[in-house]
Write a structure and sequence with these properties.
Elements: H1 2-31, H2 37-43, H3 49-64, H4 67-98, H5 104-110, H6 114-121, H7 124-160, H8 175-178, H9 182-200, H10 206-210, H11 213-222, E1 264-265, H12 285-288, H13 292-307, E2 318-319, H14 337-345, E3 352-358, H15 373-379, H16 384-387, H17 390-398, H18 402-408, E4 430-436, H19 445-454, H20 476-490, E5 505-511, H21 520-526, E6 531-533, H22 535-538, H23 564-576, E7 580-586, H24 616-641, E8 648-654, E9 682-690, E10 692-695, H25 703-713, H26 719-729, E11 744-745, E12 748-749, E13 751-755, E14 762-767, E15 772-777, E16 784-788, E17 799-801, H27 804-815, H28 817-840
Parallel strand pairs: 3-7, 3-8, 4-10, 5-6, 5-7
Antiparallel strand pairs: 1-2, 4-9, 8-9, 11-12, 13-14, 14-15, 15-16, 16-17
Length: about 850
């Protein structure tokens, strides 16, 4: 019994020691490249101080405990060791899967839902493997660790209190070492050296790397995110806001006169447009203010405050484009010449709109092109010299994204004819406008949807705090509802039912994935959709098209093909009701873990010159890309079969990209600022639009203004709705992509801000005027990151630093003074932008 008790004590200490040291070594390995190697070596001993004190405390409790106290101590220490073991194993699992550093607060938020827990459990295998390895090593090392610590601590204790531990002397075979003064001398010398190094070392980044795992775990779980660095309310580049740059309002343009230092205005409703008379749908709150009732309520609040009954609520801030220091508009420019000529030659009616959000879809796979970096990586694994299979290989790659190739008109270069793309209504010189250079507004899907649907910038806080707030701009569905309401008020009964300009819009959202993760159902409903379809609506036996063969392919739901009959019915029902269709469809098969249905024929895109594990994740992803490419062909076939192809604008956009080992050390999107997580496809497809392939260094915040501009330019709205759209398009931050894009104006840059998953830790700062990107950390435990996408388009050699000053120095040495000066501006603007979003979101 005593022997068993001693073994349990030794095992607990061994698990704690090996888990703690493994965790610390992993954290140091993840960060050592971001600091000077000499300083990393010098300060290395200080990183383990918290662990050493923790190990000593646990040893002392286990060693000195007796009786019932020994049992209680063993239980408490055992619990701590188990927590350390599980946390360390989770760290290794997360690093194995993503290459990143786990944040426990974010993991806690994800794990609060059933779908989120399934996401976390997808890393269970590497977690168990890590725990098993540490557990076995702990069993083997337990006697040695206990023996060594006992000898060392007894020696140290005897030098301070020689007689204090005589009642618990260790076995006789170790007593001979206690009289040696060497352990004491080395311990005291090391202690003095480490203390001195601790005093002189900077807090950032070394405090973060020194923190012991249990304390880091407790700190992250007790608060949702790290404290953001403070910044001024005033725009940091005031010289750009000089009166000489102010612009007067004219027509529907509100002018530009930034006098507040931020883009908000509490008195915006004093200038109501004609269309704002009467009741307004949700999303138009700032135009609803200014009535006598509102004034009375405001007086009541002031009176209550002055009487001391309760403080008055702060006035709500609304976005005002005339006050936005960053806003650049191009609506005063002519339409792109090719589009202008096409509109002079033919009518291009847009009676219906379909928006397709492509989960985790990168620009380089929409379509895949010959001689791209991804193609070169796949080609390098082949063995053409021996088997002469290059033609067959090209045929395999040509079948990967034929629908995307047909839709965009961007030739893959594999020189293969695609018979399965024949159901796409288009022509050699017609089909739509596709873009290179577009970045997502957020690498978190739900935040990305807000950017795309509502033309707003996402809130830089973790996860979907926006679900409990009102977007500071009307979403597209709410604008369509406003047009519906105005038809209620003024529609003339003489208008025929078949006049699309007088028909109301039916707004529909459909996906085969769950609507429960991160409260998506609430999120979608708040943005103004009339009708929704989620996995929860199709997986019941009473569902219209339920069948026994329905197969879940991931923790979020079903393949897109399961919603095909539902979408067909939605289209037909809308048309039969003499309504205009606004359908938004969100794909999900291309999300981790990149599974496809069992009957889908998977292919290997990497050849024999690659190991099984080297490219298997990317290979899985490419198979889901091919599955969704085929699905897009089906979806376009539904539009064609409904007879509305030549009347439908279909917008294809990636919600965000994703990274793999082929791109960078970190994979997927979590806390990953790499360019592969941001570059997304964007296509405005219409069979009668001219074929155009353009480059625009912008974000998806331009989608909503572009759609409104297209509706106006093509005459697809009646006079009343056109006035609404013309007035509202001038309210948004984004530029219209059917006009020449302005990368800068009067010294101001068109800034590209991107909120990085999960939202509250990193911000991507870029500019349309330069090829530079800054990864701006929102807390002290993450690095700054700088890249130049002109010289390094795939961001293979980023510059890292723990302060903006050190980053500026490194950027100046590598990329010159222009890059260094831009970095200083980007840091200031990025910090201001963070606080500005919170002001505009009334957060």
């Amino acid at each position: 019994m005593v022997a068993n008790r001693y073994f349990v004590q030794r095992l607990i200490l061994s698990v704690l020691v090996l888990s703690g040291i493994s965790s610390k070594l992993l954290r140091l390995y993840q960060h050592y490249q971001s600091m000077p190697f000499s300083l990393f070596v010098i300060y290395f001993p200080t990183f383990f101080v918290p662990e050493i004190f923790l190990f000593i405390a646990v040893w002392a409790l286990l060693y000195n405990a007796s009786g019932r106290f020994a049992v209680a101590t063993a239980i408490g220490a055992g619990f701590l060791a188990c927590v350390e073991l599980v946390a360390t194993s989770s760290q290794f699992s997360f690093y194995y899967v993503t290459g990143g550093e786990i944040r426990w607060g974010a993991a806690k938020s994800i794990g609060t839902s059933r779908r989120g827990m399934r996401l976390l459990l997808s890393g269970l295998v590497p977690t168990v493997a890590s725990a098993t390895v540490i557990g076995i090593a702990s069993c083997i090392a337990a006697p040695g660790i206990w023996h060594w610590m006992t000898r060392w601590l007894h020696s140290l204790s005897n030098s301070l209190r020689p007689k204090s531990l005589t009642s618990k002397a260790p076995p006789r075979d170790t007593l001979e070492d206690f009289v040696s003064h060497k352990p004491r001398f080395y311990t005291f010398s090391a202690g003095l050296l480490i203390t001195g190094l601790w005093v002189i070392r900077p807090a950032v980044p070394y405090d973060h790397m020194t923190e012991a795992l249990p304390f880091a775990l407790l700190g992250d779980l007790s608060s949702h995110s790290k404290t953001l660095k403070a910044t001024s309310d005033r725009f940091p580049l005031p010289e750009l806001l000089s009166e000489r740059f102010w612009e007067s309002p004219h027509g529907s343009y509100k002018g530009w006169k930034p006098t507040l230092g931020h883009a908000g205005d509490t008195g915006y409703a004093n200038q109501k447009p004609d269309w704002a008379a009467g009741s307004l749908p949700p999303g138009f709150e700032r135009w609803s203010l200014g009535s006598d009732a509102d004034a009375g309520n405001l007086q009541d609040d002031k009176a209550s405050s002055s009487n001391g009954n309760r403080p008055a609520d702060p006035p709500r801030v609304y976005y005002d484009p005339a006050q936005d220091p960053m806003r650049i508009t191009n609506l005063d420019s002519d339409l792109l010449e090719s589009l202008k000529e096409a509109l002079q030659e033919r009518d291009i009616p847009i009676n219906h709109i379909v928006m397709v959000f492509l989960e985790s879809t990168r620009k380089d796979v929409f379509p895949l092109k010959s001689n791209s970096r991804l193609h070169s990586q796949m080609r390098a694994t082949q063995n053409f010299e021996e088997d002469g299979s290059e033609a067959e290989f090209n045929k395999t790659l040509a079948s990967l994204t034929p629908i995307a190739e047909s839709l965009t008109g961007e030739h893959s270069g594999f020189n293969v004819t695609h018979a399965n793309a024949s159901n796409i209504s288009t022509g050699p010189d017609r089909g739509g406008i596709s873009f290179d250079g577009v970045l997502t507004g957020s690498t978190l899907s739900a935040k990305s949807r807000l950017v795309n649907y509502c033309g707003v910038q996402a809130l830089p806080v973790d996860f979907m705090a926006e679900n409990d707030l009102v977007p500071y701009q009307p979403c597209l569905m709410q604008i369509l509802e406003l047009m519906n309401q105005r038809k209620n008020v003024t529609a003339d009964s003489d208008f025929p039912d078949d006049d699309p300009l007088e028909q109301k819009w039916q707004t529909i959202f459909a996906q085969s994935a769950t609507g429960g993760f991160q409260d998506q159902k609430k999120h979608i409903r708040q943005m103004g959709f009339h009708q929704t379809l989620f996995a929860e609506d199709i997986n019941k036996k009473r569902s219209k098209y339920w069948h026994h063969q329905m197969e879940r392919i991931n923790y979020f739901g079903y393949p897109e093909t399961e919603v095909r009959p539902y979408i067909r019915d939605m289209i037909n029902d809308t048309l039969n009701a003499n309504k205009r269709l606004f359908l938004s469809h969100f794909t999900s098969t291309t999300h981790h873990p990149w599974n496809t249905p069992a009957d889908f024929s998977r292919k290997d895109y990497f050849g024999p010159h690659s190991s099984l594990s080297q490219h298997n994740t990317m290979n899985d992803y490419l198979n889901t890309i091919r599955f969704d490419d085929e699905w897009l062909g089906d979806l376009m076939g539904l539009i064609e079969n409904a007879g509305i192809a030549n009347q439908t604008l279909t917008v294809f956009v990636g919600d965000h990209g994703t990274a793999f080992k082929e791109d960078c050390p970190m994979t997927e999107t979590y806390q990953n600022p790499h360019i592969s997580t941001f570059r997304v496809p964007l296509l405005f497809h219409h069979p009668l639009l001219p074929r155009m392939h353009l480059t625009a260094n912008t974000t998806t915040i331009s989608i909503l203004p572009t759609i409104l501009d297209l509706l106006i330019a093509t005459g697809s709205l009646n006079e009343r709705d056109s006035k609404i759209a013309l007035d509202l398009v001038n309210e948004y931050e984004g530029q219209s992509l059917i006009r020449p894009f302005r990368a800068s104006h009067n010294g101001r840059e068109a800034w590209n801000m991107g909120v990085i998953n999960a939202g509250g830790t990193l911000l991507s700062v870029g500019s349309a005027a330069v090829p530079y990107r800054l990864g701006l950390p929102l807390s002290d435990d993450l690095e700054y990151r700088f890249t130049n996408t002109e010289n390094d388009p795939h961001e293979l050699s980023p510059v890292l630093g723990w302060s903006i000053e050190s980053l500026v120095v490194e950027a100046h040495l590598r990329d010159g003074a222009e890059a260094a000066n831009w970095l200083r501006r980007a840091d200031k603007v990025g910090r201001w932008w963070i606080k500005e979003r919170k002001i505009l979101w009334n957060y």
